[in-house]
Design a protein that fits this description.
6 helices; mainly alpha; 159 residues; globular; single chain
């Protein structure tokens, strides 16, 4: 698939609803199930799903400046390719481990993680990150001028 320059309001709304469902499911768990290990496992997985719903976003529009879209991309690369250790720069043996010249200054990021920190998201982290992600996504990729056709919606976010 080619990179996407925009997403419809409905696509973004559907993704928000999926994130809200995941948060409700976590909150409904018994307290004994909400260990720190499980919380990190659950929300690290949720950040990967968040990225996946918009994985074809065009990097030229996303930017490389440490915004929440970049932060989610870096977190996912770190979780999938670097054993859960935050990696902003490309790894020598993993050419796809990070985007070219991505920047994620801790002071500008949502989670304030530094290179080589372990990625262990909490519920509060994920709420802050997903809120910032959607706000930035709407700002940079809003397809407000695109009509939501039934055909297009059927192809997007099928269950």
């Amino acid at each position: 698939m080619l990179a996407r320059k925009e997403y419809t309001r409905q696509e973004i709304k559907t993704a928000r609803e999926l994130v809200d469902q995941a948060l409700r499911a976590y909150k409904a768990l018994p307290a004994a199930a909400k260990t720190k290990e499980f919380e990190a496992f659950y929300f690290n997985r949720e950040v990967r799903l968040l990225d996946h719903m918009f994985m074809y976003r065009m990097m030229a529009i996303e930017g490389k400046d440490g915004n929440p879209l970049v932060e989610v991309r870096v977190l996912c690369n770190s979780l999938l390719l670097n054993g859960g250790i935050l990696q902003v720069e490309k790894l020598p043996d993993w050419p796809d481990s990070a985007g070219a010249q991505l920047k994620l200054p801790p002071e500008k990021s949502v989670l304030k993680l530094k290179a080589r920190d372990e990625v262990k998201l909490t519920q509060a982290d994920f709420v802050r990150l997903s809120t910032a992600f959607f706000a930035t996504l709407e700002e940079k990729f809003s397809g407000a001028h695109i009509p939501d056709s039934p055909l297009r919606l059927r192809k997007t976010f099928r269950r």
